[in-house]
Model the fold of this input.
Amino acid sequence: MVSDINDQTVQRKEKLAKLRQQGNPYPNDFRRDSCAKNALEQQERLASQAPETRGDEIKLAGRLMSRRIMGKASFAHIQDESGRIQLYAQRDRLPDGQYNESFKKFDIGDIIGVIGRPFITKTGELTIEVSQFQLLVKSLHPLPEKHHGLTNVEIRYRQRYIDLLVSETSREVFRKRAATIRSLRKFLDDRGYIEIESPIMQAIPGGANAKPFVTHHNALDRDLYLRVAQELYIKRCLVGGFERVYELNRNFRNEGLSTQHNPEFTMLEYNEAYLDYNDYMDLTEEMLKIVAQDVNGSTKLEYEGHSIDLAQPFERLNMSEAVLRHNPKLSSTDLNDQKMLASILLTHGVESDSGLSVGEMLMLVFEATVEDHLIQPTYITAYPEVVSPLSRRNDDDSSLTDRFELFIAGRELANGFSELNDAEDQATRFERQAVAKSSGDEEAMFFDQDYITALEYGLPPNAGGGLGVDRFVMLLTGCSSIRDVLLFPHLRSDNNN
Done:
């Protein structure tokens, strides 16, 4: 099979060499005045007229996707972004020699321009009766075999351009991704939010516990870090007087690759003054419902065998309640027992450091025993303060924070909280993070003095957080891997890349 493909490539290059002898094989003088979708809209009108009726002459361009030669006449299909349409070519109705010397020598994958008139075939298919062809681009590689498509997943990801060429399903995924991003922006814009752009290269990365990528700026002769989150810059804007701020952009985290993680990913972070985390949960719930309706025409999703309706009120559970529900043999007293928590973790293959606090261990138990079971939209609240360095403490229990994470289909989709605006408390937490970093925790935060200074000027009460856009798109499109919703995902190297 590989040999056949290589032979085809050699033949196509030989054709290109001959075309070069005749002139420029990559002309740019063809101007289309229609597309496949526009032409197909004539179907109903022409179908109601006499069989010999022809529509007005149109000019189309697209990629040759199929061809069936039958002596003096042939059928073919070309594809442009709007769709696919059939062509009909007769030798005697084309300029001298064009049928034999041009059309019959085209290869599948070539990009061609056609001039012709639409009509309806006996089988009821709208077709263009071609009066003139023009080769616009020679394709030097054969497309994947028609009936089997692009079955190699690695090639689909590494050579997305081929995947898009042959798979309408893939094209639709990325149309929905674009629609999702438009809808998210519209929701926040309509609410009066201002969109900002924070630095991607930062002297101090912050806003999330994550290992950053490091680069070096030659002119400044200093290391800089790729952004891990937009949060701290958004809150600086709230200090400056903006009250509704968002950023929808890429973040970068130096972590492993999986079906759920890509080191470069799209995050929507949004903060609003004079809200608390309960208001923010309401806001996020409304946004997801509206965007799903906008993109899919429905709030109901089918995902990995589960029926999910974003229009239904999202359940809200605090972390302790969630752990007890999914570990019925435990009591509330057990949740403060380090030995008991360590034992649970061991039964799930998780080894815990003896130096971990009760809050840190409870978080690990939650991750090991609860997350995968949160299929219907569920807010988990009351996160331990020790694992929430940017969240406001709860007024009734200072060991907890006014924080939530949203889970759907067993995956975290969003994280938010009432923001910590006490500069002294934030400095203390940064100091604790800095100690952890110096002790080898690569995901711990840096101490950001400028951010502390900003807080000292006064950050209004506010709530904020982030939505994982890639994961949201996975839900809306039914994709199980994040690589299916990223046009160009990061992959492990192979011999050719």
Summary: The CA atoms of residues 196 and 247 lie 5 Å apart. The two ends are 22 Å apart (CA to CA). DSSP finds 15 helices and 18 strands in the chain.
